[in-house]
Amino acid sequence: MTIIRVALPVPLARLFDYRPKEGQLPLKGVRVKVPFGRRKLIGIVVDYANNSDLPVAQLKQLLAILDSQPLFSSTLWQLLQWAAAYYHYPLGEVLQKALPKGLRQGKPAVQAETIQWQLTALGHTTVLQAASKAPRQQAALRQLQQGLSSQATPFLAISPRLLRTLHTKGLVKTDRPTPAAAGSWSLTRPSDQQAPILNAEQQVAVNQISQQLQGFNVWLLQGVTGSGKTEVYLRLLEQVLAQGKQALLLVPEISLTHQTIERLRQRLPVPIVVLHSALRESERLAIWLAARDGAVALVVGTRSALFTPLQRLGLIIIDEEHDLSYKQQSGWRYHARDLAVLRAHYEGIPILLGSATPALETLHNVQQGKYRQLLLTQRAGGAAAVQQQLLDLKGQPLTAGIAPELFARIQQHLQANNQVLLFLNRRGYAPALLCHDCGWLATCLRCERYYTLHQASQRLCCHHCGNQRAVAHQCTGCGSTHLITAGIGTEQLESKLQQLLPQISIQRIDRDSTRQKGALAQQLHTIHQGGAQLLIGTQMLAKGHHFPDVTLVALLDIDGALFSADYRAAERLAQLYTQVAGRAGRASKQGEVVLQTHHPQHPLLQTLLLQGYTAFSEQLLEERQLASLPPYVSQVLLLAEDFESPRACDFLSAVRQLLEQPGHLDSALWLLGPSPALQAKRAGYFRWQLLLQHPSRGRLQQLLQSHYPQISALPLARKIKWSIDVDPVEG
């Protein structure tokens, strides 16, 4: 009898054996419903066997076969199996996480009939400004008026409720869709937006990649901020889509790429879909099925969009490839950028990594000849390079964290009817609330970190675990009511600057001010209206935005990153500074960047500002090599957390003893720990870590694979939470 081996969504690194129903043999890669204890689970058929550890008579029988064909293409199937082994995560959970929730619940893997929405004659001729009081209706109407092919409209980011509103106004009508031929889109219609003329460097990049679109190559497009990387993406996408192929564009965060998506839809009259966490599960499933069936030309999404099935994938683009958002930080800790390179290899297609500040791992691959580098050193459209200045804060009186010299510059730029961007990567009103009499600090007991005061909501919030409480009005230590704040956040900065500059419009963009749906798009729309405005924000303002009227960018407080215990902090600070500074002077206006610091002579800042990111990254790579740190060695981090600190530490001590057994210890293996994690307590859990480091990635994988069964069998392994982080990016 043939035995069916099934991967189930359970935290066990093994397959489970079942008997098939008589006369029914499911294909590999299809879903099956099986009994599992008292539950019924949806699993994926992985393999067949002739025998089992249990007698055949004791094996349970499959309850149902849910698919007639595999859900995964051969390349995706290969990728996911490799990823489960490399990241040491149960295959059943990896396969399930690559599917929409609807398929995980057993819904049919076929397209349901959908209502097709099309513009009426009135909708085609309605002037957009007529809907200006309803920006969401205006945006939806603009998408429809851009002439997208009829098969695209079911997948537009337009809610059914909004479409019904347009229907009541006579702007759209409904129809039943006719099946669209896969790849039937056309790029022959003239775009509503005139394509800009490429400069010499952009043209070289497009030409070189265009000549090798038929095979696997990894390209790094490193361009200074504002150098026109997006235009290179567009030219390549036009070529790939014109051949009837599909493309995948990964971005760090959908909420930060509003302008890019708008530009894609203006230039590419094809079915474009956007995958993000705010989609309803039914929408996500419909997009997944449409992409699999070839009815979608371009998928734009965050890291999980990498696993979208695409029949005729011709190009993968990873925008801002250095961004930490591509690394999953819980559960299956995969890196989407690295898996995207492997998927491109399996598909036999090119992949383009774009960034102004590439990760050191990526630059190391360039040095080794694995990746091919293309440089964009000039700002597109003739924009001038920004002027940079360090402002020494020592001994200066500060107002809202701003030195007098910087405040004078802010006023000058605003008086010239320009915009100013102030970067402060700390949301809330103040990062600490303390007692002025005894020094007591309001602390989250679950994390042992200070609460952040949010004045508008009158809440104390822990930004590490999300715990909240009402603002304390009395010290719990001495009973004093003399409570004061320490430090400054974006909320306080906005409040004080509004008092100092009452005539200036202020836009604060952080996670708090953009919680409501559509809030970010509305704020960005206001910014693009132009005129004197003061923009205050966190990292949300640093990535991908084009603000032509911003002429002054100031970074108010970054000194903490100069002396971090994390060896990656210097790289991240340089990337952040370069990205933020790139928001200035992106059009015809001269840009200026001011960095406030108490340490203007710090060698990192001197190299970064005087020689640029390329020189800085080369210097940092040399330091990493001398110190035997990634990317010159491979690392794996074993993390353990428990409500009782000794148990987490004891578990990792037992793991270390396993690895150091006489006769089994690899002399090149370097072990550090167990030691407390950089954040030693989070959400009530004490967190410990054990770092494994080896010059050979392959050898480290072998060591981990051979010891994994013993680690899983340790007595404490089932009593605490533990995980394996391969190629960690955070401690």
How would you explain this protein's 3D organization?
With about 725 residues, the chain is an alpha/beta fold. The chain folds into six domains: about 5-105, PriA, 3(prime) DNA-binding domain (GIY-YIG endonuclease); about 115-175; about 200-380, P-loop containing nucleotide triphosphate hydrolases (Rossmann fold); about 385-425 and about 490-625, Rossmann fold, CATH 3.40.50.300; about 430-485, no CATH class; about 635-725, Ribosomal protein S10 (Alpha-Beta Plaits). Helix content is about 30%, strand content about 25%. The chain has 20 helices and 31 strands. Strands 10-11-9-12-13-8-14 form a seven-stranded parallel beta sheet, with helices on both faces. A six-stranded parallel beta sheet has the order 15-27-26-16-25-24, with helices on both faces. The two termini are about 50 Å apart.
